[in-house]
Specification:
It is a single chain. This protein has an 8-stranded mixed sheet, with helices on both faces. About 45% of the residues lie in helices and about 15% in strands. The C terminus is likely disordered. Helix 3 links the parallel strand 5 and strand 6. The chain starts with a strand and ends with a helix. The protein is built from 11 helices and 8 strands. With about 280 residues, the chain is α/β, with parallel strands linked by helices. Helix 2 crosses helix 3, helix 4 packs antiparallel against helix 5 and helix 4 crosses helix 6. The longest helix has 15 residues.
Length: about 280
């Protein structure tokens, strides 16, 4: 089921078809690339080269003093993409605050990025529910302890949150604290939502009424961004509904049953994989 490599001082999981079109999966605040393992096992994505990174300071990737904000993570991921996928067009999947990283990467790399699939990415200030807690603390270690206690309490009836708790325990406290405070800051005034709406590449916002804040739901409706609602799962559909999530990713990047712009996206990806 794939392999693990260390690239740009980050642990990177690679699965699927080595010669296939590359898709980069970026995990949420406090999480690790392991959250996508069930999706990676789906036969629905077998034709793609699947890449998931442990962001610096999370999982098995050591912290970097120069990578603490959304913009800094986006810049570091751009360097990683150019190294892992030289000369290739890449599709991005970002979860939660990593959805905003994906938007920033797409904005900077232009036609090197063929599409952004955001899984409940941050759009409004209300989406900074977990990350925003960092702004209430002056000390990184105290913040992490409080954060883990909160997640543990919520995880008693949720497999996805138990996974998240285990992942967050490995995170570097100072990295979490800095990234959380930055995410809270840039989430104000719906700036992240406007950035998503301004994408030049095809995009899809994948969300659930069970876990998306009301103000964000209203913004999605009013903004008219491309979006897809899933049901029966919360904020971690890749864990709770891996097959359905894999199918939606395939439909988006493969163009099955999608609009003409997404069909063109699928053609570009497929052509790129044959080069």
């Amino acid at each position: 089921m794939g392999r693990i490599e260390v690239i740009e001082r980050a642990l990177v999981r690679i699965a699927g078809l080595d010669s296939g079109p590359p898709l980069l999966f970026i995990h949420a605040f406090g999480d690790t690339g392991h959250c996508y393992n069930r999706v990676f096992r789906s036969r629905r994505l077998a034709q793609y080269r699947l890449i998931a990174v442990d962001l610096w300071g999370f999982g098995a990737s050591p912290a970097r003093s120069d990578v603490r904000t959304v913009a800094e993570y986006s810049g570091a991921l751009e360097t990683l993409i150019l190294k892992v996928c030289p000369g290739q067009t890449v599709g991005l999947i970002g979860h939660s605050i990593a959805g905003s990283m994906a938007v920033e990467i797409a904005t900077q790399l232009g036609n090197r990025i063929c599409g952004v699939f955001s899984i409940e990415g941050n759009l409004t200030a209300d989406d900074a529910m977990f990350t925003g807690k960092a702004s209430n603390f002056d000390d990184p270690d105290t913040f992490k302890m409080s954060f883990l206690n909160d997640v543990w309490e919520m995880s008693q009836s949720s497999e996805a949150l138990r996974h998240y708790y285990a992942a967050a325990r490995m995170a570097d406290s100072e990295t979490m604290w800095n990234l959380g405070r930055d995410a809270k800051r840039i989430s104000e005034e719906n700036k992240l939502g406007e950035a998503f709406r301004g994408l030049q590449q095809p995009s899809n916002y994948y969300w659930s009424t069970a876990s998306t804040p009301q103000k964000t739901r209203q913004w999605i409706e009013q903004s008219g961004i491309p979006n897809e609602i899933y049901s029966g799962a919360g904020h971690w559909p890749m864990i709770e509904q891996p097959e359905a999530t894999a199918q939606s990713i395939t439909d988006f990047f493969g163009g099955h049953g999608a609009e003409s712009t997404t069909s063109e996206l699928g053609r570009v990806l497929t052509d790129n994989g044959r080069r």
